[in-house]
Structures are given as structure tokens and as C-alpha cells.
Amino acid sequence: MNKSTALIQNPVDDYALKRHHNFQHSLSHHPLLQLEELKKLALRSPKIRFHSAMLKRTQPFDTARELQTGMTIEETLNNIEASGSFVYLMEVEKDPLYRDLIQTIMANIEKNVHRHDSKMCKPKAWIFITSPGGVTPYHRDFNANYFFQIKGQKTLWLWDHTDREIVGQEEDEAFHGVHSLAKTLYTDEKMKKAVKYEMGPSSGAFFSYTDPHLVENGSEEVSISLSITFLTPEDYQVKRIHKINQLLRKVGIIPSDIGKSKLLNQMKLGLHWLVKHTIYLKSPDWEDA
Ligand SMILES: [Fe+2]
Asked: How far apart, in Å, are the Cα atoms of 288 and each of 124, 231, 235?
């Protein structure tokens, strides 16, 4: 691909990296992102998961991957129009054939991240292939996400992760502190505050770090999407503050919320460093935080 091609058009606005927004892109006709080529990638990929996509909005996200269809990956992909499946490929950036394309897209995104005085950490590429009518239930992820719709239609519902009517303080503490989605649950009430993005080929959406989302495929066509995810140093700080809050609550101290005091946040970041480098030195749960 010509590196001067504008992969993402109009990505910069006042909200970049802080709030979800949509954008346009020019990736949909790229030969490596067509279904037949992606089937070959899926069959050689060491990092692939697949399960039923015939889920309800209310399905707890953690349990979705347990819902198997009984089909092999070959059967699933060869019959993707009717297999009712969700297939996702992880670490696409490591595949020799896809490396250049993904690095070009990541470099494009990184330029935007730098424009906003931040850094891109742990960039990863994912590809999602979903049967018509598939649903990805309400959930959150530990990253920011540039989501490129390549083929088919999707309705994407997004919420602001800083809205305390949607994400409670204790939910944030469980999510960041012990990586639990147990309190991250869909309700009809939350739909009133959802922002709806109708996605088709060449549309994209940016999810800010840990924004809740729910994805519903169109009923007519197979969908292909590409996600580039990453964290920024500011995202790591948010994670660390919630993690310390979770620990404080565990020992009986009611912690102040993250938005209340910059000084307290700084103190919690110091405490995090101390705890991580002393008591929890060998715990993998603290390695990434
Ligand atoms: Fe997600």
C-alpha cells in the first residue's frame, strides 16, 4: 500500500482520545481485508477464537465465548453467512503478510496520538468476522480502539466511560482492580444514554479507553471489521488509580472518586508505585498496571 494514502480521514477533533467519535477511512477495498484472504489468515493464525454470535444484548460478556456452535473453524468460515458465528483474530500485526499494512495503519494512528501530546503503548490489531444478525454483548475493554468497518453493516452503541450514571465507581474498581466484568452489565435504562453509530464500509469509530460498547450486526450480510487498540500513559494512570481505590475499599477505606482531586490522584499513583514494587512485586496482576 502506498504509505501516503490517507487511511483515516478527519480523525482530529477536539475530542480525540478523550471521547468517542466517528471518522471515515479508505481501507475497505484493500485486497488483504477481503473475506477469502482473511479465511487463509484465520486458518494459519495461532491466535484465533470463535463462538456463537447468536447472543442477546443482556448476555454477560464473560460467558459469550463458552457458547460454542460445535463447528470447526473451517466449517464456521466456509459457512459464515449462515453459521451464526463470531470469529476473531488476534495479533494480526505479527502475521508476515499483514505486518506492513498494519504497521502503516498504526503509524497513521500514532501520528494522531502524538498530535494530542500522548504516546501509543501496546498497539495491537484485531479482525472480527461475524455472521448476519450476530451480537457482541455490552462490555468494556482495557484499551482505546480505532474501529474500522470493512464490509457489511453494524450498529455500534457507545457510552462514555466517565459517565457515573453508566459506569459506577465500584464497577470501575472491580474492572481495573481485579479485571472483573461482573458489575459491567447491560440495562435498558443505559440505552437512553447510548450514542448510536451506524457503521458501513469506510466508516470508523474511535472508542476512548474503556468506553462501554455493544455491537449488533446487520441481518443481511457478513461483517468484517478491523480494530487497532492501544493504551496511552494517561490510560495507565487511570487504571492505577482505580486499582488503588479497589485496594483501599478492600481494607475498609472508602476511596474518593477519580474525578475529585488531582492531588489525591497523584498520591494514589505514588502509593501504586510503592505497592507494586514491594508487596505485589511478583503478582502478574500488577505487572501490566
Ligand atoms: Fe470490545
From this structure: 15, 11, 12
127 contacts 89 by C-beta, under 8 angstroms? yes
> Do you know the residue count of the chain?
289
> Where are the domains positioned within the chain?
13-232, 235-287
What's the fold here for domain 13-232?
Jelly Rolls (2.60.120)
SS (H, E, C) 92-140: HHHCCCCHHHHHHHHHHHHHHHHHCCCCCEEEEEEEEEECCCCEEEEEC
d(CA 51, CA 125): 20
**Distance of CA 84 from the midpoint of ligand 1 (Å):** 19
pTM of the model: 0.92
Q: How far apart are CA 209 and CA 193, in angstroms?
A: 18
Please name every residue paired with 5 in a beta bridge, in sequence order, or none if there are none.
Answer: none
pLDDT at 10: 60
The CA 232 to ligand 1 mean position distance, Å, reads 17
Q: Measure 224 CA to ligand 1 centroid, in angstroms.
A: 14
Q: What is the pLDDT of residues 13-64, one digit of tens each?
A: 666 788 899 999 999 999 999 999 999 999 998 899 999 999 998 888 888 8
Alpha helices in 203-261 (DSSP H): 233-250
Q: Among candidates 222, 228, 221, 243, which has minimal Cα distance to 288?
A: 243
Calculate how far, in angstroms, residue 285's C-alpha sits from the geometric centre of ligand 1: 21
Give one DSSP letter per residue of 39-81, joined into a string: HHHHHH-SSEEEEE----TTS-HHHHTT---S--HHHHHHTTT
66 is written with which cell numbers?
463458552
Identify whether the C-beta of residue 136 lies closer than 8 Å to the C-beta of residue 58. Answer: no
